[in-house]
Specification:
alpha/beta; DNA polymerase, domain 1; 2 domains; two-stranded parallel ribbon; 32% helix; elongated; binds S-adenosyl-L-homocysteine; binds iron/sulfur cluster
Length: 406
């Protein structure tokens, strides 16, 4: 497991790999969509309907080896293996279980044979090629008010939320965020993003279509700075895995070009949108989120207005409360005015800042959090307080700590 020291020792290796996506040497099937699988099958002289069997095995049966694809003829399975194909789904390397049921996973994003040695003359820094994924049975109230409240009893959980990473590290540099400290190591591929979800569904025996599962793209990374892979993962999760985009929420720090592209996505594959507001005005936001200097609040809101919301859909504004910096009652009043000014159907999700070593902020006092919420309630702004889940295992989404991996 990694300590920060290991990360910094290996950072020169990581830089070599920066921005690249998959290892060229492997041929993972996981991540290919229906069309790509059809191309593969016809290219091998197989009937095109074999692609459906492959997709079923990868995304519905969650098979982890080509040998295990028993719907395919043995000869085809052998040929696929001989030609260098493998399932190549990311693996859960490590699991941390919280007393509140939250689980945090370190997910390996490389195919097993690529973990050691070199790729050409390029050393593979396999140890740090991991991202974090979180399972929150009963969610964290961040989904409250979105129509996904539980209706029926069943498993030990009635509604679970999976928090998914989109990049290794992040380039955005929000001052309060630990992921920012890593810088951007690389983009995840579509298969690596969707694979985190399938890994966790598998671990918990989730029956998609029957069990209530929400996805939040709020783990490590900025999804809208890995737009194509992120959306390709969403399409896989909708079309192949079978999860409704209305059960998915993508959070962005306010990448305007990404929001504009997102606004043009067809509704049948468009998740709901959350904006990390995190400050009551441009002056404070530019301090805590330097990206605000490039795309200030009004520019972000203008882009959000281009999204054609579904009936009853709301845009979420995420608001991390930083003690003494963004948690005063006057800030709450300003947030209320700001969200009203947008004219959008919104809700505000408050989350108390989770501390991290070397990050120069303070956790807000519980009284301040309550007072902040009360102001918004009084202003009739729909507001939800996200529960800190898995505090004992440092599992807060977006705060995903490399530092505890010792
Ligand atoms: N990059 C995207 C998604 C990942 S961050 C974004 O910024 O929106 C997901 C959420 O976690 C964001 O709303 C972010 O503001 C929040 N976050 C980051 N660090 C945090 C911390 N230490 N405590 C609480 N929330 C944090
Ligand atoms: Fe990146 Fe989001 Fe963290 Fe900002 S809050 S550094 S955008 S992961």
């Amino acid at each position: 497991m990694l300590s920060p020291a290991v990360i910094s020792q290996n950072s020169h290796l990581l830089q070599l790999d920066a921005i690249s996506t998959a290892e060229e040497s492997r041929r993972p099937l996981f991540g290919l969509d229906g069309e790509a699988l059809a191309g593969l099958m016809t290219g091998m002289g197989e009937p095109v309907w074999r692609a459906r069997q492959l997709a079923e095995a990868l995304y519905r049966q969650r098979v982890i080896s080509i040998e295990g694809m028993t719907t395919l003829p043995v000869a085809l399975r052998r040929r696929l293996v001989a030609e260098g194909w493998e399932v190549g789904r990311p693996r859960i390397l490590q699991t941390y279980v919280s007393s509140d049921g939250t689980e945090r996973y370190l997910v390996q994003c490389q195919a097993p044979q690529a973990q050691t040695g070199t790729t050409g003359d390029r050393p593979v820094a396999a140890a740090v090629e991991a991202v974090e994924t979180v399972w929150m049975p009963e969610g964290d109230e961040g989904e409250a008010g979105d129509g996904s409240e539980p209706e029926e009893a069943g498993k030990s959980w009635q509604r679970a939320t999976i928090c998914v990473s989109s990049q290794v590290g992040c380039a955005v540099n929000c001052q309060f965020c630990l992921t920012a400290r890593l810088g951007l190591q690389r983009n995840l591929t579509a298969g690596e993003i969707a694979g985190q979800v399938v890994d966790v569904l598998d671990r918990h025996g989730v029956e998609v279509g029957k069990d209530r599962v929400n996805l939040v793209f709020m783990g490590m990374g900025e999804p809208f700075l890995n737009y194509d892979n992120f959306m390709a993962a969403v399409r896989l999760l909708v079309k192949e895995v079978g999860i409704s985009p209305q059960r998915m929420t993508v959070s962005t720090s306010g990448i305007v070009l990404g929001i504009e592209r997102f606004a043009a996505e067809p509704a049948d594959v468009r998740p709901k949108l959350a904006i990390s507001l995190n400050a009551p005005n441009d002056a404070i936001r530019s301090e805590v989120m330097p990206i605000n200097r490039k795309w200030p609040i009004d520019a972000v809101v203008d882009a959000v207005r281009k999204v054609r919301l579904r009936p009853r859909e709301r845009v979420t504004f995420e608001y991390v409360l930083l003690g003494g910096v963004t948690d005063r009652p006057e800030h709450a009043a300003e947030v209320a005015r700001l969200v009203r000014r947008t004219g959008l159907p919104v809700k505000v999700n408050l989350i108390a800042w989770n501390p991290g070593p070397g990050v120069p902020y303070a956790t807000p006092k519980p009284d301040a959090v309550e007072a902040f919420k009360r102001v918004l309630v009084a202003e009739r702004v729909p507001v939800y307080l996200r529960k800190p889940r898995g505090r004992d295992i440092y599992a807060a989404c977006g705060q995903l700590k490399r530092t505890v991996e010792g």
